[in-house]
Specification:
four-stranded antiparallel beta sheet; Butyryl-Coa Dehydrogenase, subunit A, domain 1; Butyryl-CoA Dehydrogenase, subunit A, domain 3; 48% helix; 11 helices; alpha+beta
Length: 386
């Protein structure tokens, strides 16, 4: 089974047909989620023995690329569930069973979301502004504010982390756990009113002593960069699946640009199709070439994760480089498609107008352009001298 079987054309077209309405109403994609769940899409990483598809990262990335051609916001939000189930799969493949319960619960219909992002925290996973207060029973109470919590209306398990500042002799410890939706001590704000990716409903989550019991605490790590397999697994799945979504956005924009070039006619050239205009042909060719370079890049990085390839200190540069190439390429191709399509694409409600807004979200996801270039430079040139 591949992306076309898990996400057949009929389902894809129904999802595409709802995308504009969700965007216009700033509404969550409940119908999409219901259909995707029924199709087993959220169990893509779950082993076949538990009723899932048993896919690896390469195939799931292909699925997400395909879904994003129909509804980028739906794909982006579903990404967060797939990131956690993907992390569990990547760890299991490397002999780490600490998140096997994520796959087991996903098999039973639980929906996982990502609640790690914090405003002003450019250390990302290596420090936290959220307090993790140890409780007598081994659990933790988390207090802080998490932003961009996709799947806010639907998640049943929220992955969060915070810092226990008193741990490790006062050096601090980063505590990772899963918050149950039924737990007390948190609030989901109704504050998602953005330029694009509106159906994701990535609302702010305010933690006010939200309790994660001991059996849901799955990692305690030192503050700062470290080589724990969890960090690699999160980066590998997050960056690769994010790249897959934006690759799908670029793919769809190219298709729309080609259709527009064939549909539009030139009055001054006797009604000939713009597909015969040398300048338009150049733009379409340029967009097609940059997309052709992106497809194998995405597939190869994901394939290497599945195959347990050891890239050593080049792994993180490869992952962040893929993310930046995908998001920047998608922005370029969407812009080209709009130029080819003419003024009609400037009107609200057209698909390209929506893609133009959706694709901008790519610049805000970690790793951002500055952080990615710093990661790659350090890998190739070493750190800056003091």
């Amino acid at each position: 089974m591949g992306p076309e079987q898990l996400l057949p054309d009929s389902l894809l077209e129904r999802i595409r047909g709802r995308a504009a309405g969700y965007d216009a109403k700033n509404a969550f994609f409940f119908e999409d989620l219901e259909e995707l769940t029924a199709a087993g899409y959220l169990k893509a990483f779950v082993p076949a023995s538990d009723g899932g598809s048993g896919f690896g990262l390469e195939t799931v990335a292909g699925c997400q690329r395909r879904l994003a051609t129909a509804a980028p916001a739906t794909a982006l939000a579903v990404n967060m569930h797939l990131v956690w189930t993907g992390v569990a799969r990547v760890l299991a493949d490397r002999g780490d069973a600490s998140l096997d319960f994520v796959l087991s619960e996903a098999a039973k219909g639980e929906i996982f979301a990502f609640g790690n992002s914090e405003a002003g925290n450019d250390a990302v996973l290596f420090d936290s502004l959220t307090e993790a207060r140890p409780l007598p029973d081994g659990g933790y109470g988390f207090t802080g504010t998490k932003i961009f919590t996709s799947l806010s209306p639907a998640w049943t398990r929220l992955g969060i982390f915070g810092k226990d500042s008193a741990a490790r002799g006062g050096e601090g410890e980063l505590v990772h756990g899963f918050l149950d939706r039924a737990a007390p001590g948190y609030e989901l704000l109704d504050d998602w009113n953005t330029l694009g990716m509106r159906a994701s409903q990535s609302n702010t989550t305010v933690l006010r002593g939200a309790v994660v019991p001991a059996h849901r605490i799955f990692r305690k790590l030192p503050v700062g960069p470290n080589a724990d397999p969890l960090i690699f697994a999160i980066f590998a799945c997050f960056e690769t699946l994010l790249a897959a979504v934006y690759t799908g956005v670029g793919e769809r924009a190219l298709t729309l640009g080609v259709e527009a070039a064939k549909r539009r006619t030139s009055f001054k050239n006797g009604g000939r199709s713009y597909a015969q205009d040398p300048d338009i042909r150049w733009k379409i060719a340029e967009a097609a070439m940059v997309m052709d370079a992106l497809y194998p890049h995405l597939a190869q990085v994901a394939r290497d994760v599945d195959a347990l390839v050891d890239h050593g200190n080049q792994w993180f540069p490869k992952l962040v480089g893929l993310k930046v190439r995908a998001t920047e390429t998608a922005r370029t191709v969407v812009d080209t498609a709009i130029r080819v399509s003419g003024g009609s694409s400037y009107f609200r409600g057209t698909e390209l107008e929506r893609l133009y807004r959706d694709v901008l979200a790519g610049i805000f996801h970690p790793s951002d352009d500055e952080s990615a270039h710093n990661t790659v430079a350090n890998a190739w040139l070493g750190p800056l001298e003091e």
